[in-house]
Amino acid sequence: MKFVIISDTHGQHKNLTLPKGDVIIHAGDISQRGKESEIIDFLNWFKDLDFKYKIFIAGNHDFFFEKTSENDIQKIIPENIIYLCDSGIEVENIKIWGSPITPWFYDWAFNRPRGAQISHHWQLIPIDTDILITHGPAFGKLDKTTRGENVGCEDLLHIIESIQPKVHICGHIHEGYGQTTSSKTKFINASVLDEKYGLTNPPITFEL
């Protein structure tokens, strides 16, 4: 199966040029300010894409998903879109888990303090996960800011090193865009926008 990965479109999704594939995954920040109108605009675009499976998580800009009940969220998500929020799905024997959680940073959506509170979310990740999607990166994995600081989550890294998913997908740190491999896990930061919110980075693809 061919996977096409994007993240951090921040409302610029209609300007993307997407390669062909079987599965498209968006790793969060589909909106700029998290308004319902922005979310619906993205969903209307996403549902019409020519992929067999369409999967996304929310990000720290996507306040709508944190402030809205699960029941009301499901009412606006088209049937052919899979939304993951500390939850998983199995797609043709590939087990995928998604979480929007990021370490606390200026009181954005889905922020959790480092340590016990954020670890609670990571402990939910099944040990047999093949593809892990989190909005933020793991510590030291495509998480370096323009100031040279590694800002990823240490507790997330520990879980990844323990369960060793085949692929970890993130975004959030725009300047961390790219790929790297460590042990049995391929790490992908799929932020399509740069740190100045310019649409500069192409989607990333891989096959499983």
From TrEMBL:
<protein>
    <submittedName>
        <fullName>Metallophosphatase domain-containing protein</fullName>
    </submittedName>
</protein>
<dbReference type="InterPro" id="IPR004843">
    <property type="entry name" value="Calcineurin-like_PHP"/>
</dbReference>
<dbReference type="InterPro" id="IPR051693">
    <property type="entry name" value="UPF0046_metallophosphoest"/>
</dbReference>
<dbReference type="InterPro" id="IPR029052">
    <property type="entry name" value="Metallo-depent_PP-like"/>
</dbReference>
<feature type="domain" description="Calcineurin-like phosphoesterase">
    <location>
        <begin position="1"/>
        <end position="175"/>
    </location>
</feature>
<dbReference type="Pfam" id="PF00149">
    <property type="entry name" value="Metallophos"/>
</dbReference>
